[in-house]
Amino acid sequence: MGYLMIVWIVLVTVVTVFYLNIPPPELSPRLKAWYKKGSFFRYNDFDIFYIDEDGVMTDDSTLLLIHGFPTSSHDWIKILDDLKEQYSRIVMTDMLGFGFTDKPKQYDYLITEQADILEAILESLSVKDVHIMSHDYGDTVALELLHRHNTNKGKVQVNSLCMLNGGVFPETNFPLFGQKMLLVPVLGDLLSHISFYGSLKRGLGSTFGPGTQPSDTDMRDFYAVLRYKEGNIVMSRLIHYITQRNKNKERWVGALQKTKVPTHMIYGPADPVNPPVFVDHYKKVVPNPSIHVLPSGIGHYPQWEDPTGVVSSYVEFLKNVKQE
């Protein structure tokens, strides 16, 4: 073993030991209030956090919100009240490995299982049909649910699907350097153990538009949720959704291409992970594409960066859905 390799291993070990003795940050009052709104659903041996809220409408309609990587259901807080105006009920969860849900360490996180869990929660709530809004990682989970709906193999009927910035197409998805490092065997596990607030701020912050950066309070909330139940440690396992997308392209992109369900994309173009080449590809690949491009400064988290623009586009989409 070379001298430099020994030095590297010793350095990483020292940093890891030091990091593991740093307690996770406390939840802010805002996060504590979010936690109190929720309940837990037991799936196999895991506790899955979910929130089931009443909306304003009286038509028995339900909206399922599916968050992205590496965050949680709290991502929807800025548009939740407006969405309640459109539905009788809104259900959202922290998927396995995220947020307040359990985060098993030695585990293969599969998109298909995330969909299984959502179906199980909806079934327990006696929800048989849903509209879906999803973001990022959640877009892929939503496409799995859409595939099941298309093939009559799902446990829930999908009435409509609205996606926000996500790597729907492997060809137009460009993971950040840190995400690529998490995919590297052994190295990814080590990096997960020594994740710091500063690294999250740089990495996650780079996906927002230059003029729509989260406040320090917002970013610390993102970090606190990530560190909850040592969630940082499983990032190197969750990140393999990228390879799952590549392997299941025909299944998930095909679901979007073949479906008769009304679909819509709301897209922030200042997104380094899914840059504007995504728009042309979406229009080329998806039959009768419905896509709304937000102003140029909006990045990967449109529901956080431009909540008014997202709600406006979504309400217009719903009007068309209801007219069909």
In short:
The chain has 324 residues and is of the alpha/beta class. The protein has one domain (3-323): Rossmann fold (3-Layer(aba) Sandwich), CATH 3.40.50.1820. It has helices at residues 3-20, 29-37, 80-84, 111-124, 137-150, 177-182, 187-193, 197-205, 216-227, 235-238, 241-247, 249-258, 277-285, 302-305, 307-323, and strands at 39-43, 46-54, 62-66, 89-93, 129-135, 157-164, 263-267, 291-293.
Word description of this protein:
This protein has one domain (3-323): Rossmann fold (3-Layer(aba) Sandwich), CATH 3.40.50.1820. Helix 4 (111-124) crosses helix 5 (137-150) and helix 5 packs across helix 12 (249-258). The protein starts with a helix and ends with a helix. Helices cover 45% and strands 15% of the residues. The chain has 324 residues and is of the alpha/beta class. The chain has an eight-stranded mixed sheet with strand order 1-2-4-3-5-6-7-8, sandwiched between helices. The protein has helices at residues 3-20, 29-37, 80-84, 111-124, 137-150, 177-182, 187-193, 197-205, 216-227, 235-238, 241-247, 249-258, 277-285, 302-305, 307-323; strands at residues 39-43, 46-54, 62-66, 89-93, 129-135, 157-164, 263-267, 291-293. It is globular, with a radius of gyration of 19 Å.
